[in-house]
Amino acid sequence: MTTNLKQGLGLVLMLPITLLGAIATPAYLQNAQAQTGDGRAITVRADVQEANSLTGVVTARGNVQIDYPARQIQATAAQAQYFSKERRIILSGNVYVLQQGNSLRGETITYLIDEGRFIALPEDQGQQVESIYIVSDPEAPTQPVAPPVTPPFNPKPAFKTPVSDPASGQ
């Protein structure tokens, strides 16, 4: 067996056992750790968690918190589903994701673990998702730029020098 296959098989077999202990504990202690293929843990905390060993799907409901320190990801949602075979997590219900200072907010956010990619969707068509990125720009001013000073509006036109000489009378 290849190493990845062994790790994947170990994840599918160990995750339900790990989650069974999490489900049997009081709500304030319920958390689970999913091992990614390279051994880094994703911790899921929620009011209720259910695991299906046949499908490899773990569902967490109520005050869901996810912590993935290896990629500096923290997230909150009303519900999360971890699909171990597809290696993806679907977060739904007022989702907020924070990664290295950047944030993403939407109604449904899918995280593709192997690609390290997020896909965010709004609640309804016509609504939007929000993302805030920390941009490294050494030339950007640290203080807000003041608006340019413009002279006050004067509705009276300024008089120009006359074309004819007023002393000559012409």
Please state roughly what percent of the residues sit in beta strands, choosing from under 5%, 5-15%, 15-25%, 25-35%, 35-45% or over 45%.
Answer: 35-45%
What's the oligomerization state? single chain
Strand-pairing-aware structural class: mainly beta
Cα distance spanning the termini = 108 Å
The average pLDDT value, as a whole number, equals 78
The CATH architecture designation is Sandwich
Using only CA atoms, what is the Rg?
29 Å
How many strands, what sense, and barrel or not for the largest sheet? 9 strands, antiparallel
Q: What is the CATH level 1 assignment? A: Mainly Beta
- What is the H-and-E element order? HEEEEEEEEE
Number of helices: 1
Tell me briefly what this model is.
The protein has 170 residues and is mainly beta. The protein has one helix at 3-23; strands at 31-35, 41-45, 48-52, 57-68, 73-83, 88-99, 102-112, 117-121, 130-132.
Describe the structure.
- With 170 residues, this protein is mainly β.
- Helices cover 12% and strands 41% of the residues.
- It is built from one helix and nine strands.
- Strands 1, 2, 3, 4, 5, 6, 7, 8 and 9 form a nine-stranded antiparallel β-sheet that branches.
- The radius of gyration is 29 Å and the shape is rod-shaped.
- The termini are far apart.
- 19% of the residues are buried.
